[in-house]
Amino acid sequence: MIPLLMEGKMALESRTKIRQIVDSERFNNIVFVAILASSISIGFETYDWGYGGNRFLLYLDWFFMTIFVTEILFRIYAMRFDFFKDPWCMFDFIIVGIALFPSSGVFRVFRVFRVLRAFRLVSRIPELKLVAESLIYSIRGLSAVTTLLMVVIYVFAVLSTVLFQDFVIFK
Q: CA–CA separation, 98 vs 148, rounded Å?
């Protein structure tokens, strides 16, 4: 019987097993390798590799989309409504959902958003997490520095205009 249609104890057991798989380090490592490889393949799509190369990239794209959709379906089945409470899961859901749009015309741009999943690396690598948190905390200070620099540039722009208004470069 299909796990999604099972009821009672069997459904709970299958959901628990899938939850263990989804939460395992091995599963998450496989997903991260897929995210990295997918990001690299999206980068390769920016060049025309000819018919054979572009076709290979298309098949590779389908392969990665299959992995990502399967991952999300497993997570939704295992986590149920908790899936939609986790910000990273929602982020993945939206990005993969957008990437499922047809890849022609205007929608081709939306598929590129899949490369944003690489931001999940920030949560996995402690050094990147520290750098990202530092950048976030420093935004307030950086905005103050930017404002100060804008004021200084404005003051000197006004001074130069007033001081050199009679000086003509072109006649």
A: 40
Half-sphere exposure of 165 (CA within 13 A, CB side): 6
d(CA 38, CA 41): 5
CA 149 to chain centre: 32
Q: Quick one: three-class SS letters along the chain?
A: CCHHHCCHHHHHHHHHHHHHHHHCHHHHHHHHHHHHHHHHHHHHCCCCCHHHHHHHHHHHHHHHHHHHHHHHHHHHHHHHHHHHHCHHHHHHHHHHHHHCCCCCCCHHHHHHHHHHHHHHHHHHCHHHHHHHHHHHHHHHHHHHHHHHHHHHHHHHHHHHHHHCCCCCCCC
What is the mean pLDDT of each successive set of 10 residues along the chain, which is 171 residues long? 58 86 90 89 87 92 92 92 88 86 68 75 79 84 92 93 78 60
Do residues 113 and 95 touch, judged by C-beta distance below 8 A? yes
Cα separation, 26 vs 28, whole angstroms:
5
Q: What are phi and psi of 125, to 5 degrees?
A: -105, 115
What is the value of pTM for the model shown? 0.67
